[in-house]
Write a structure and sequence with these properties.
Length: about 425
């Protein structure tokens, strides 16, 4: 039973909260590299874990991520002038470098050294896999760089997008762990979305799905089995990696897909969507499909990360399509079906009123692991999922004989191996 207190504990990630402290121990995808396309380009507002920040790329190409507001009298540095290795506040000209250090206060004599005493809170950034990652925790505990396969394959093998979602990160993430909904919510898209169609997609339409959850060093495996040919089972194996990464089991020769669910604040999150193929470039038709909102990606309102289909237009629900079995819930597109359903639970679902069943075991385990990770952190131990070795895993879909342990039989398929394609049916 999730009490209100536990619900608050799991969903609040602002500065000084327990979960907020935990998330600040990991590298966090903060923005797309493409949002800061060149030196001295316009700065970008970034809200992460309820903190309002400004990101900019200086004249030398270095990325800074710091407090959005000028230390003088609080103007948003979004209006700033990004020039000559720093961001200058347009109100009275105070200027900051990528570390947040103030390097010029025009009103004060340079000899006074006044500006040296002014520094905005800032966070270190790295660029990896077309994303700018930041670390918001204590500097002495900064972990090694992330080891996710999608971020390490050649750029030609990868497509990354992100979209805002109007609900708490945990709610979105729990959708990523809950493989049972696929046979219902996405059932008709499994036959129509070109990035899903496969034998596996057909087998996934079977609603007799049984769950097995296995804890791993970095998180857990969620194995879901459905009937295949006689004597065999079709297993879809999801990886969840602490604190907010999930890897979706693949379909046929289609690429691998995954998500990171990053809190913007307690009532909004950024859904990062990663598609990659370990051994080949993504094809032009695949890229075109994704840019047009196919697969796990969505069409966005130009100049924003808000989906075109959203709460304000009732997700453009099409009741005729729902009745005619073209979509199960009336919303078009796999990603927006998830988003619509999850946003409908309210900005922060009241978990004290839910009734969990056996297919929710993954969701239950994730909550347990997050609590344990907070305990570990508070006792001075390293939380799980920080070691990049725990990131070097894959999801898989595989047909196995009945009566074998799925995680032993699929052990090889669940490791990321350079130059080796994923296991997929
Ligand atoms: S408020 Fe930024 S320089 Fe005055
Ligand atoms: Fe889904």
């Amino acid at each position: 039973m999730t009490t209100r207190e536990l619900n608050d504990f799991l969903t609040q990630t602002g500065s000084g909260t327990a979960m907020g402290d935990l998330l600040r121990r990991y590298w966090i995808p903060a923005l797309l590299s493409a949002e800061l396309p060149e030196p001295d380009c316009p700065p970008v507002r970034v809200k992460l874990l309820s903190e309002r920040l400004i990101a900019f790329r200086d004249t030398q190409g270095r990325v800074g991520l710091m407090d959005e507001f000028c230390a003088h009298r609080g103007v948003s540095l979004w209006f700033g002038r990004n020039e000559e290795d720093g961001l200058r506040c347009p109100y009275h000209g105070w200027k900051y470098d990528v570390s947040g250090q103030c390097i010029d206060v025009p009103s004060e004599p340079e000899a006074s050294g006044y500006c040296k005493r002014i520094k905005l809170k800032s966070y270190p950034c790295v660029e990896l896999g077309d994303a700018i990652w930041t670390y918001m925790g204590p500097s002495a505990l900064k972990p090694p760089l992330p080891g996710f396969e999608w971020a390490l394959v050649p750029q030609t093998h990868r497509f990354v997008s992100k979209r805002t979602q109007e609900c708490n990160y945990l709610q979105a993430m729990e959708g990523g762990i809950d493989s049972a909904h696929v046979s219902f919510l996405h059932r008709h898209d499994l036959r129509s979305d070109s990035l899903h169609v496969s034998r596996g997609a057909e087998l996934t339409r079977e609603t007799d799905a049984r769950f097995e959850v296995i804890e791993t060093a970095g998180g857990m495996l969620i194995g879901v089995r459905r009937p295949a040919q006689p004597g065999h089972l079709y297993w879809r194996i999801t990886q969840w990696i602490m604190p907010f990464h999930s890897m979706i089991p693949p379909y046929g020769d289609n690429a691998l897909n995954g998500h990171a669910w990053v809190p913007i604040d307690d009532e909004n999150c950024m859904s990062w969507c990663f598609t990659h193929h370990p051994t080949r470039r993504l094809t032009e038709p695949e890229l075109t499909t994704m840019r047009n909102g196919g697969g796990i990606h969505v069409k966005l309102i130009p100049g924003s990360f808000r989906p075109v289909v959203n709460k304000d237009n009732d997700y453009m629900i099409d009741r005729a399509a729902q009745k005619a079995n073209r979509t199960y819930c009336g919303v078009a597109g796999i990603a927006m079906q998830d988003a619509a359903i999850q946003e409908s639970m309210g900005p922060i679902q009241d978990r004290s009123r839910e009734n969990l069943v056996s297919t929710d075991n993954g969701v239950i385990m994730a909550r347990v692991r997050l609590r344990k990770a907070v305990q570990a952190m508070q006792q001075g131990r390293e939380p799980d999922g920080i070691d990049p070795v725990t990131h070097m895993v894959r999801s898989a879909s595989i047909v196995l004989p009945e009566n074998v342990s799925f995680y032993e039989a699929a052990a090889d398929a669940l490791q990321a191996k350079e130059g080796v394609a994923h296991t997929s049916v």
